[in-house]
Amino acid sequence: xxxxxxxxxxxxxxxxxxxxxxxxxxxxxxxxxxxxxxxxxxxxxxxxxxxxxxxxxxxxxxxxxxxxxxxxxxxxxxxxxxxxxxxxxxxxxxxxxxxxxxxxxxxxxxxxxxxxxxxxxxxxxxxxxxxxxxxxxxxxxxxxxxxxxxxxxxxxxxxxxxxxxxxxxxxxxxxxxxxxxxxxxxxxxxxxxxxxxxxxxxxxxxxxxxxxxxxxxxxxxxxxxxxxxxxxxxxxxxxxxxxxxxxxxxxxxxxxxxxxxxxxxxxxxxxxxxxxxxxxxxxxxxxxxxxxxxxxxxxxxxxxxxxxxxxxxxxxxxxxxxxxxxxxxxxxxxxxxxxxxxxxxxxxxxxxxxxxxxxxxxxxxxxxxxxxxxxxxxxxxxxxxxxxxxxxxxxx
Length: 396
Ligand code: KG4
Ligand code: ZN
Prior knowledge:
By secondary structure, this protein is α/β, with parallel strands linked by helices. It folds into 2 domains: 8-140 and 350-364, ATPase, nucleotide binding domain (Nucleotidyltransferase, domain 5), CATH 3.30.420; 171-349, 2-Layer Sandwich (Nucleotidyltransferase, domain 5). Helices cover 42% and strands 18% of the residues. The strands form 2 sheets. It has a 6-stranded mixed β-sheet, with helices on both faces. A 5-stranded mixed β-sheet has the order 3-2-1-4-5, sandwiched between helices. The chain is globular. The structure holds 5'-O-[(R)-(carboxyoxy)(hydroxy)phosphoryl]adenosine and zinc ion. Zinc ion binds at residues 117, 121, 151, 321, 354. 5'-O-[(R)-(carboxyoxy)(hydroxy)phosphoryl]adenosine is lined by residues 16, 151-153, 181, 184-185, 196-199, 202, 321-323, 325-326, 353-354.
């Protein structure tokens, strides 16, 4: 490794349907953040097609990395390290970014740093917070923080701590079935809206009545394993479940006989996919259904997250992942945080969804710690972040 550090890390992210590269200085200053979206490729299928995702990553990886270096006004020689997402995600998609990052690291003789995608999402918030602290706009986020990572693939809660330069994560909650973003995507699809569904529902929900359709979330329970001495060995985590609400929306459309209007909307929107077009194609009953669905999901996330924060003694909250771009979620989480006197932080929307700046930022503290990946690094589609469940003060 070069002794004269420039502080520059190139991040590469290809875990799902965005090919992304970014150059970040000292884990805080984003010099470039380039994302090639594959929405147009996957839209006709209403979801990510893994084989098509890999093919698009192959097509995009070289130009995206070149653009990131050029926008940052830097060269490969200036970099301290190459960071890459090694999981979780789609195996074939991850392998494109990993193979390219390994090749660069080997050819340049630079360290390779492996980053968990979920750790990246958490650092999307930490990186912006660090910038704002430097500008004296905010105090550092008090720790431990409770992080809600809420995206198309995950609805996870972590307790985040810092020991010196090292960040640690403990998983304290997860979904037992669909992720929240997946529910947004599936509900949008079954209502004949575009892909990915979250931004469509976000844009249409303000036009409907969020209390029109009463959705309820049942409590998800897991059996705690009792040891012989009666002590709970498997502590109770916060559990989410979003497959039921998707089925409830489907049932509602069947009972209300909405199939033909949904089909008409699907056909019209595939030719002209705009929010204004969608608004004109939705009757009030559909808008009320959309608003009620969004309110139910946001409220379930909010209730369980704040209950966990209280039970675990979190000093602050951070919310990240694609669904953290949702405007109602931001408003309702911010209001409740103010009520309970908790600091809360979100990334700006461009850093909430998948990007590589968050990967480069998460890698920064791993460099001095010597947390360098071998050139045999491979994809781990089900990589977990941190340790298992932390015992809350009382069952959640
Ligand atoms: O973090 P992300 O880009 O990729 C994953 O790691 O999954 O998240 C994508 C997810 C999709 O399910 C998308 O519908 C959702 O985030 N999403 C939103 C919004 N923007 C993106 N969900 C609700 N409201 C939004 N504004
Ligand atoms: Zn993500």
